[in-house]
Amino acid sequence: MIKLKNNSEADIRRLRGSDFEAVRDFLRLFSTETIFTNQYPGQPDIERDKSVAAYENKDNLFLGAFLPDGRLIGMTSFQKPKPNHPWSGGNAGFGLCILKEFYHCGLGTELMRQLEAGAREKGVHRLFGTVRTENYHAIHLYLKCGFTIEGITKETAFINGRWHDEYYISKLLKEEK
């Protein structure tokens, strides 16, 4: 259990198959709170079998932050797109999502810290992702956690009648001394 700045307590742990319903409900709510995600209101529900297989895949890491009552309030993950590739097997794409109610309470920092620790354990050399250029809160968090903005992709998402750009971000996980 970790204590958050808003006096809540959360248990951050690896997701299991039994968490499927909590993840589904979380994503339904999260998709209505922000445009800074690939989740969108009314999208088809995630598939149980594919989700559980992803949680249990040894090359992936899916973490959830749960309140004592079992409600999922945030999650992060990484997946290696080509885990067995001799040249690029050390790359992993990551994502992070947190309910608005739990912004600015230290949850994002802790989720990212634990995600990075898990990535190091699994031999990840480079964590990478994208973030919408107007998502100032996430950009601040990622830069604070040591990520670098590598570039920009123009007009990647058409939302509410206009195009939005995204940054490519990454962090090299060098050996800690």
Summary of the model, kept short:
The chain has 177 residues and is α+β, with helices and mostly antiparallel strands.
Describe the model.
This protein is α+β, with helices and mostly antiparallel strands. The chain has helices at residues 20-33, 48-56, 107-121, 136-144; strands at residues 2-3, 9-14, 61-66, 72-79, 91-98, 126-132, 148-159, 162-172. It has a domain at 2-124: 3-Layer(aba) Sandwich (Aminopeptidase). The mean pLDDT is 92.
Question: Which spans of ≥5 residues are poorly predicted at pLDDT below 50?
Answer: none
Q: Which term fits the overall shape? A: globular
- Following the backbone from N to C, one meets helices and strands in this order, namely EEHHEEEHEHEE
Largest sheet properties? 8 strands, mixed
Total beta strands:
8
Distance between the termini: 28 Å
CATH H-level superfamily of the domain at 2-124: Gcn5-related N-acetyltransferase (GNAT)
**At CATH's second level, what is the architecture of the domain at 2-124?**
3-Layer(aba) Sandwich
Could you name the CATH topology of the domain at 2-124? Aminopeptidase
The gyration radius over C-alpha positions equals: 16 Å
Q: Residue share in helices?
A: 25-40%
Strand content: 25-35%
CATH class of the domain at 2-124: Alpha Beta
Going across the biggest sheet, name each strand in turn: 1-2-3-4-5-6-8-7
The mean pLDDT is 92
- Helix-and-strand structural type: alpha+beta
**Helix tally?**
4
Topology, element by element:
Blueprint: E1 2-3, E2 9-14, H1 20-33, H2 48-56, E3 61-66, E4 72-79, E5 91-98, H3 107-121, E6 126-132, H4 136-144, E7 148-159, E8 162-172
Parallel strand pairs: 5-6
Antiparallel strand pairs: 1-2, 2-3, 3-4, 4-5, 6-8, 7-8
